[in-house]
Amino acid sequence: MAKNSGIIKIEGTLEELTFYKKDGVNFVRRKASVSKARIQNDPSYARTRENNQEFAHCSQMSKTLRQAIHALIFSVRDGKQHYRLQQVMAKLKNQDMDSARGMRKVSIGLETPEGKQLLNGFDFNTQAVLDQILAAPYTIDTDKGTVSFANISPVQHVHFPTGATHVAFQSAVLALNFDTGVSDLVLSGVKSLSLEAAATTIKLTVDRIPEVEHGQLMYLLLVSFNQELNGEHYPLRNGAFNALRIIAVP
């Protein structure tokens, strides 16, 4: 794979070369010499077909999770989010010790303690990793669906980006069946604090724990920043500084 540094930037296939852009950089690579039909039917490409099938499965599982939490994920902005989550899904798939190659599933991997640990702590925005913007400890009651902060001080415990005047906290509990795509997301209320607010206690509570047949529970925390102008609160830079993390996978 080489970079395309010429004055004219081409995208697409030209004879045996494919030109494409990734992360704002132009690349060029030689077109694959093996036909699609051969890969799909030749016995010597069995491993390739298995890898392709599992890759497609992990990509779909990443999409399934992101769609299930759309009410939260639209608040954060990370262009590489899908690919990072897909990598986690690939590791989860590897925890499936029962299925044959090419048929391993994320849902089976998530049944293991190791699988749950792989998903727990995933940050949906690498520009705003939760630990980098929030220094206050919190506790999670997975039975009641509560996330609690004791004596949190915005000026001491929150790293405010330039221009922000308020920080908002919201928790959520998700039940998701990765095999069927059926999901149920329950959100807590939003607790907003100004930068100058005195230390206070915050308790984020959902009104019920969601239930989905054969669904995996996940607990999430969203920390978002706003700017107050003439009494109205506006999202800061379309969520570039907002943090969203999976904080528990029981």
Mean pLDDT: 88
CATH topology of the largest domain: Immunoglobulin-like
Reported for the largest beta sheet, the result is: 6 strands, antiparallel
CATH architecture of the largest domain: Sandwich
Task: Name the shape in a single word.
Answer: globular
Q: How many E strands?
A: 13
Class computed from helices, strands and strand pairing: alpha+beta
Radius of gyration: 22 Å
The share of residues in extended strands comes to 25-35%
Give the domain tally.
Answer: 3
CATH class of the largest domain: Mainly Beta
N-to-C span: 42 Å
- The level of helicity is 25-40%
Model regions low in confidence, pLDDT < 50 over at least 5 residues: none
Order of helices and strands: EEEEHHHHHHHEEHEEEEEEE
Counted by DSSP, the helix tally is 8
Describe the structure.
With 250 residues, this protein is α+β, with helices and mostly antiparallel strands. It folds into three domains: 1-33, no CATH class; 41-119, no CATH class; 130-248, Sandwich (Immunoglobulin-like). It is built from eight helices and 13 strands. The strands form three sheets. Strands 7, 8, 9, 11, 12 and 13 form a six-stranded antiparallel beta sheet that branches. β7 and β8 (183-187) form a beta hairpin. α2 (46-68) packs across α4. The chain starts with a strand and ends with a strand.
